[in-house]
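As promised in the previous annual report, we have extended the structural survey to additional targets. Below is the entry for ABC transporter ATP-binding protein.
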Amino acid sequence: MSHILEVSDLEVSFSGDGGKNISVDHISFYVDPGEVVCIVGESGCGKSVTSLSVMGLLGRGGSVTSGSVLFEGKDLLAMTEKELDQIRGDRLTMIFQDPLTSLNPVFTIGNQMTESIRVHMGLGKEEAAARALMLLKKVGLPDAAAVMRRYPHLLSGGMRQRVMIAMALSCSPSLLIADEPTTALDVTIQAQIMELILELKEELGMSVLLITHDMGLVAQMADRVLVMYAGQMIEQAPVLELFDHPAHPYTKALLRSVPGIMDRRDRVLESIEGMVPEQYDMITGCRFADRCPYRRDICSRPQTDTMIMDSHLVRCCRAGEVGNDASK
Ligand SMILES: Nc1ncnc2c1ncn2[C@@H]1O[C@H](COP(=O)(O)OP(=O)(O)O)[C@@H](O)[C@H]1O
Ligand code: SF4
Ligand SMILES: [Mg+2]
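The corresponding structure token record, generated without further manual editing, is:
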């Protein structure tokens, strides 16, 4: 099966007053048709920079300094803005944590949805408006016609996120990238929106790349999981394999910090001590070393990926021992 998205050896840097910072360090991963792949990791690990570079939406100062991003077999990094525009919002779409930043405040919802559908699907105004209305109903907005007439700031956070999803799905994309789409919403709305994404995924046969720091959401949504730490991909595995046999100490710690995923009922919830290092591109050895209970001298050497099972990759020289240790 050919991958719908294949990212190889991607390096992303930002240049500023202090010189060049490598935010995403030679990561590789793929998404298959119909799959939900979750990228997890604490704040500042490079999840958003990864998704923005796939979309070609890195802001000023940011650039992809090596690697390739193949979407449906074509290299997005080699495309012109015009070619990219034809794919974005059509076959490949993205929803963000805060929909207000991606909705235009001076146009009504109906206006912006209709325009986007006209541009991407080549429909007439009335047909496009009818499709917008149908999509708003589909994402569970009770009075879709009234929502069409409103401006974004007059909607609640949950309603705006539904509008964003409707817009993202308006041209039946084959891949939806969602960057912490429900972090700002309360848990009930979050659950509804995730249900909705799963339903639409089944119906449209699309793939989803979901970025989150919430392992509970991962359990609910993912087929496969990618764990990022300090700009690197440190573990990749199918979701059950990852939950049953986490091999990287960071993944183990992330799973221990979530209620209800590990087995013991009397377990005390833990958080991971310490912080993601800020200037992580200066660290040549394992970047998790200063927080890791398994650390040894050997960990100060550069770490490489090891395949420990079919589709299970880990970047830790002690993964074999770590994976068999139930005590930490
Ligand atoms: N616009 C930017 N300019 C400079 N550095 C940035 C910029 N955006 C992100 N970074 C850096 O890239 C790293 C990864 O950030 P990000 O991808 O936003 O993390 P995450 O989404 O996992 O919380 C961080 O160290 C952050 O400081
Ligand atoms: S390489 Fe060493 S320090 Fe890094 S995660 Fe593995 S055991 Fe811990
Ligand atoms: Mg982010």
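The pocket of iron/sulfur cluster (ligand 2) is lined by residues 248-249, 286, 288-289, 292, 294-295, 299, 303, 316-318 (CB under 6 Å). The radius of gyration is 21 Å. These points will be discussed at the next consortium meeting with the crystallography subgroup.
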